[in-house]
Amino acid sequence: MEEVDVLNIGVGNGQHCEQLCLPIYKHVVRERVRWDRITDFDISSAMLQAAKGYYPSEEYQRRFAEREPLQVQGDVLELQDILPSESFDIVLAGLCDNVEDQKRIYEEAFKVLRPQGMFIVTYPHKTLMTIIRQELYGIHPAFTRFLIDGREYLVPSFTPEPEDIEELFSDAGFEAVQAENLYHDQNFDFHNQAISNTVRKAQKKSVEDLPVLVLGTGRKPDGLTELERKEKRDPWFWYN
Q1: CB atoms within 10 A of CB 85
Q2: Residue 87 CB coordination number (10 Å)
Q3: What is the mean pLDDT of the chain?
């Protein structure tokens, strides 16, 4: 199990964290994260309260000596004003298409990550989201629904291509940048029966045939020269 500190921004009501964020984390990192190493972050106090319903039971916490995640309320565009700099190994952002200033998300994640920390971000793929928003929710595909403390908003939705995400990572200073389209069968389940029926009716095909997410990852540089990096890995290499 990875002994890392994870910041989960935009946790929402906890449902998409359970069904999307944590599976995406395992898809990238290949390890399970301890519940008590997670900090859940959201702009809505109501969403944070609802997320508690997805936390492990008291019996689980006693059995495995894990507490429930820490919760912090705030704006994702002000992360460094709320959280300490360089305090997380992983920043995970699931479905952050509803944030207007996309460039700022990457800059703020960079600030709170430790050197060599990883930012993992996902967006809904525009093909699938166009179908869902038009056919299932009856809203324009350029917008998404956003709930803050009981009030629903329609906000512009950013549905990028992989190359758009790579550019955002690089501009913010990340290295080892990768971005790709993900499909339903790649180690996570991202649909329910209503979505499946909607896609089949609108496109005459299964949801499994469409990319459902765009995934991007990038690492914060450690600031070391190659010589310093070798010395850090093996302090005795000078004498070999």
Answers
A1: 12
A2: 15
A3: 78
Angle CA 21–25–31, to nearest 5: 140
Output the pLDDT for position 1: 45
34: pLDDT strictly greater than 60: yes
What is the arithmetic mean of pLDDT over 91-111?
90
Q: How many residues does the chain have?
A: 240
Rounded to an integer, what distance in angstroms lies between the CA atom of residue 190 and that of residue 188? 6
Instruction: Delineate the domains of the chain, giving CATH numbers in brackets.
Output: 6-126+147-190+211-239 (3.40.50.150)
The answer to whether 192 and 19 have CB atoms below 8 angstroms apart is no
Long-range contacts of 55-60 (CB under 8 A, 24+ apart): 55/14
User: In DSSP terms, which residues pair with 148 in a beta bridge?
Assistant: 151
The kind and range of the H/E element at 181 are: strand 175-183
Cα–Cα distance measured from residue 119 to residue 105, given in angstroms and rounded to the nearest whole number: 10
Please tell me the pTM assigned to this model.
0.80
Helices (H) then strands (E): counts for the chain: 10, 9
Q: Which string of DSSP letters, residue by residue, matches 29-74? A: H-SPBPGGGEEEEES-HHHHHHHGGGSPPHHHHHHHT-PPPEEEES
Burial of residue 114 (CB within 10 Å: 0-12, 13-18, 19+) is middle
Model confidence band, residue 74 (pLDDT cutoffs 50, 70, 90) = very high
